Amino acid sequence: MVTPGSADYSVQPTAGGPFVRQEAGSYRYRYQQVIPQAYGNYQQKAGLWDYQVGLRAEFTGLQAQVLPAGSARQRIFNLFPAATVARTLPHEQRLQLSYARRLNRPNFLQIIALPIYTDARNYAVGNPNLRPEYVHVAELGHQVAWQATTLSTTLFGRFASQSIQSLRTIDTLATRLSGQPDFIARTSYANFGRTASYGLEISLTHPLAAWWKLTANGSFFRSQVASYAGDGTRANFTGTAYLLNTFSPTKTLAVQLSGNYRAPLVVPQGRLLAVYGVDVALRQRLLHDRAALTLRVSDLFNTRRQYTQLAADGLTADLQSKYETRVGYLGFTWFLGNNKPGGNIENQPKGDPGGFGG
Q1: Which Gene3D superfamilies did the record assign (predicted)?
Q2: What are the residue boundaries of the structural domains of the chain, listed by start?
């Protein structure tokens, strides 16, 4: 996969005036990524027991280049084992224990050593030495079903090494050279020790009426990260919540209303405050199920934004980032052959904030 692109940095010299492109802060880039993989999987059923083991071999080759100068390259080979043991229990119940090793790769903006200014006082720069983050996930789950109702509970633990974290510091050299009284802040990325999260997740699917189906999911867990000051760890109890309502007012019309919430979360230099939002979607089936018209609006009330509170090494900051999250999508689908609209409204893209918004 080869991704070319460009990023322009512009300033507005006077209020209400035109934006002027700044050559020093603008650039063209080329990002190439190759990830060949090989899989092996074995399954066995013995009475009420189910067994499954798997192994994925993966090579990651990526190269990021900024024109006219600046590049980063990585070549990494990894093995990712996974295993699951499950037992079927009486009364529509199932108990399952699983383990998997996973990988989170750094993205282009996190590894390219080029300053990207969001304004005159703040910039972000990648780290060419940034390595992937490795995650070990263990889960013990129980599921029970009563007619159309399903309840799942899961105890989980997720442990990451070489954790990828963003770090914000004062660039004393750039501040001195600017000649301005205000400091210039630098955001970069580093593999910062280990992180851990462990807790409980509960999921429920239940029809409240013939025309109304409820899906709810919530988690409560302890999150732990390495402290930026190098004096141990920082931790807090946090959680997430997700609620999806699916309505069928007519045989051909489906309406979905969903909301999600993430509680405050610790980071090495401070904490991320809560994030929440609401999405709505409608789908009208047409022409005897040969076609469908879909309308979706993400972040209906425009509430999704990131608030960060930082306090480390003489730097105290309250940051707010807001991307274009309230977006409308209108789509028309024509189904070929025996294909028909599914029971749920298909997930539409939610808008990618990329790396240049703020």
Answers
A1: TonB-dependent receptor, beta-barrel domain
A2: 82-334
